[in-house]
Amino acid sequence: MTERLATTPFGGGRMSAHIFAMQKRVSDTQAKLASDTGGNETGTAEKWQLLRALTEARSAFGLSDRTIAVLEALLTFHPDKMLDGRAPIVVFPSNAELSVRSRGMAPATLRRHLALLQQAGMLLRRDSPNGKRYCRRDERGVIDEAFGFDLAPLALMATEIHERAEQARAEARRLQTLRAEVTIHLRDVAKIIEAAMTEGRKGAWAEHQLELATLSGRLGRATAAETLIERKSALLVLRRRVEEEFLNSLTNEEMSANDVQYERHIQNSNTDPTFEINGHDTKHVEPQAEKAAPERKGITISLKRVLAACPEIKAYAKDDISTWADLTRTAALVRSMLGISPDAYEKARAALGESSAAVVIAAILQRSDQIRSPGGYLRELTRRAEAGQFSIMPMIKALE
């Protein structure tokens, strides 16, 4: 049977069941590692990597950033980069030096954070007979006995700390995704309502605007995932109603796809539909001439390729985008959200054709963060198309 000696706090510090249990746990773990019965555990860790992981996972252990700062200060007193928890790792700084390395933290504050580290199971006090921190060295100058703070428990918790850090990173990514989705829904719904009201479309837009205002409250950094999920769900419900009402307000002319060339091409396609995008109106071209035109000047592009280059537009589709008609309907909705006037869009459709104009809208949406004036940009492309100086293929290639 291995002899176990419990170390009690100096002076007025009280021994507790928690301290005794932690000492036993550390002692038992060190004994297993010494006898090679610790499994995959090594009891060692690189101290700065471990501190970084603990910083990410600090909320899981109930630690604040100031407590982490005190631990960082303690680690600076250990000369090696590696922490080997198979034996005690005792550091013995003076109160004055520990305060300096803790950014001038007051003694009372230091004591509170040291107690929190001990409560979290990362620190053991190895108090000397008189409570002072020091070490005794042998005749060769090697430390023979030391009194102070034992960092071995921290090293022995390395696996748990790294696992908690990974969980914290995953949760942070989830929260970031939820926040982004909430922001996008808020922006999109607001722009649809604004476009509808600007264009004088029929609908309960004032009521929708009021409902949106109730869902636009500030979300703090510590907002729980449940709150974000509730906000996202409510915005999705509102978004579906707003989009449906906007689509219902579109006229037959706005919804129609009247470019004969594209209709004929799509109807004759048995697999992945393509269309000619040379920027010329081929409505009255004879079939043979129409066939020859793409061979001479035109560039064909598939709907699949368009959606691969411009995936953002799929988020605005009522169901899915599987046909050119789906893309055209979705582009009509996105056009308003981008602030492009009906007149500018009609001129683009006349110059480019129905499906080509829809592709341009999808491309503008994909680069909306780089285009300051989508309406002005579309008018410029329309002018170039009318002059025979614009082709969609380079635009799509630039997005791939």
UniProtKB/TrEMBL annotation:
InterPro entries: RepABC_RepC (IPR047611), RepC_C (IPR021760), RepC_N (IPR005090), WH_DNA-bd_sf (IPR036390). Pfam families: RP-C, RP-C_C. Coiled coil: none annotated. Residues 32-196 form the Plasmid replication protein C N-terminal domain. It comes from Mycoplana rhizolycopersici. Residues 303-399 form the Plasmid replication protein C C-terminal domain. This is Replication initiation protein RepC.
